[in-house]
Amino acid sequence: MYIKNVHKLKSMKKAQVNQVREHLAKYIADAEKGEEIIITKHGKPVARLAPVKKENPKFPDLKEHRESLTVRGKSLSKTVTESRKKERY
Length: 89
Description:
With about 90 residues, the chain is α+β, with helices and mostly antiparallel strands. About 40% of the residues lie in helices and about 15% in strands.
């Protein structure tokens, strides 16, 4: 398995698998603070422990799409209102 951006590994915190196993809470706390930890096995990177990115989902702007729609015939609200009146009487 190959970790992307291996050249950035020098600036990241590294820890051996057995260290992470013994002190997992400490490494999770570091990740919560924003640190990325590269987990190594026999000196080779095998995994990355990183904080979860909290991003708000980006919704597309539908203003142009809404403006391009044209209504033919009666509006839906009028159609529903008329249908309900017919059912009642």
